[in-house]
Write a structure and sequence with these properties.
115 residues, single chain, 60% strand, 0% helix, seven-stranded mixed beta sheet, globular
Length: 115
């Protein structure tokens, strides 16, 4: 089992910044990649950014240049640095860990960007 706990969400004005953190614990040696996803009210959950165990990253086109994913393996923590935030970035942000057998999800953290 893998446990994921997100933190760092909140209310910010457009153009502002936030950094989300996701602390992982448990059987993390089985994890191949980790990612951030977001779900706006009434919409499906979408990929924001993902990082492999080797450090390769991929970001959605809508966030490239503004949101950056990174990980600190020593701290078992995943980060999402969010800059130049827009109202359309408002959503619940979820951390996920992917193994060969299943996906693990955190409880989510709300990010609200006011115009």
């Amino acid at each position: 089992q893998v446990q994921l706990v997100e933190s760092g969400g909140g209310l910010v004005q457009a153009g502002g910044s936030l950094r989300l953190s996701c602390a992982a614990s448990g059987s993390i040696f089985n994890i191949n990649s980790m990612g951030w996803y977001r779900q706006a009210l009434g919409k499906q959950r979408d990929l924001v950014a993902i990082i492999s165990s080797g450090g390769s990253t991929h970001c959605a086109d809508s966030v490239k240049g503004r949101l950056t994913i990174s990980r600190d393996n020593a701290k078992n923590t995943l980060y999402l640095q969010m800059n130049s935030l827009k109202p359309e970035d408002t959503a619940v942000y979820y951390c996920a860990a992917h193994s060969n057998w299943r996906d693990y999800w955190g409880q989510g953290t709300q990010v609200t960007v006011s115009s």
